[in-house]
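Extended Data, panel c. Modelled sequence:
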Amino acid sequence: MLSTQIQKIGDWNPQLFREIKGRFKTRNIVLATGISLFGQLLLLMYHFTQLPVLNPLDKYYVNRYCTGNNKSSYSGASCFILNGNFVIDWQQWWLDIFIWLSFLGIFALLTAGTFMLIGDLEREEKRGTLNFIRLSPQSTQSIFLGKLLGVPSLLYLAAALALPLHLWSGINAKIPLSLILTFEGLVIAASIFIYSAALLFGLVSSWLGGFQPWLGTMIVFLFSWILSYKNITKDGWDLLNLFSPSTILPHLIPETFLKTQRIFGNSDASYQLSQLKDWQWFYLPVGETAPSTACFLLLNYGLWTALIWQALKRYFRNPNATALSKKQSYLLIAYLTILNLGLILQSSSTISQLYFIGFGIVLVFSGLIAALSPHRQTLQDWARYRQERLKTGVKYSLIRDLIWGEKSPAVVAIAVNLLIVAALFVPATLIFAETGDRNQIILGLLYTLSFMLICATIAQLMLLMKTSKRSLWAGGTVAAGIILPPMILGVLSINPGENGGGLWLLTPFALDAIRYASINVIVSTLLAQFAFFGFLNFQLTRQLKKAGESASKALLKS
């Protein structure tokens, strides 16, 4: 019967049939079932051991699951004994099981699923079967849907077996079923987003080889671990909470236990809930209720997942293409900037928010440089095509091609994205920032943007190298340029405002140094950065011209 059902799946999605057929063996099913049931049994046994036990030597008992005095304490209350047995607060006991299952489920689904998907793509690439799949008549959506549903299918089985205990513990903790299902829906949305990102990471980082799945899993694990402890802080860092389904958990805690429950943090659930209810985006109360919080998170997951699937379709059929089109990058940066701007308006400290903005710009644009910068062969083809168009006198707009073209260098597109950030943040700074902070904020933003422009040009120059390791060279050089200068200045104890502190103006984190720098120093360092940027672009233009000429000669000889 199982084979018949699998055959029906094959008629609907051949890739899913291929994945499930290779995994749904009796041994694998028994193993997944055993791990899930044994894990649930261990969790229940652990919580049973936390219940109070009668001891003739003890006259006073305090336990988390008792129902006596001091119930507002997290550590527990004094215990009542009735007819020789403790009066247990079973609602609190089941609530703890629900919280533990929720977090274990998030970690297991996201980390194990990421490892499986990236590892599967790495094996397909190594065996050469990925190119065979590319040549199949299936659509890209069908192939990756089959991967997404089929590769972690045994993990889904284990999660499905844990679902009854999760529902039962939530219901016994007197959490409304609608809220439990809302949370589980967010976990599903988070899994789809993370798995889609894992598939894209597996495609674009094939040069990492066997290290791919470990790196991807480590990133997801650390990201999930940090977010499990992060409360709403009403500043730009709250952008991270949009990627964690655990953000909504304070809304699920019954009011009776807000003082006694902690959700993997140092503060109790009452504080976490009050912070969440005060969460605003452009002064809209997005965290006030569970439905509004869920909708905010689902919208974010949906937009990111849609963008990732567009990138998957581009890159899978043409591995030489960039992961993002330039149009998609403009929409992405506009979305992130508006999203972040709406969150930081709630913050009381404008300057402190600029540290987050500067760090965010460096992080996001480092990824954007990697996603938009074409490699040597693509640039050679573009340069040759441009020269041929110029020779034949065909009407051609270089600016339009640099802004929108799929194969043109990425420097102008990065500049446009940086202009989008500036166009949104500068007016907001003039309107909302304190008068004394405005110049420092705008100059700090200008320094960071100009530094990232230089990084984009360096990366594009490195990707023109003839070596097969040009991606590694480009990434390593940009990373060294971002990390090493601040690290060296820190090791040498050179701080802004001290002797030599002006050197911080040559890093992407120039905000503090601006406060102590004179006008002459600021102007000279900005001019030096723009001059260096001009020199790099002169070198890039010269190399592109040379690459186009050599490609044309090689084509004529052949």
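The two ends are 59 Å apart (CA to CA). This feature is highlighted in the accompanying rendering.
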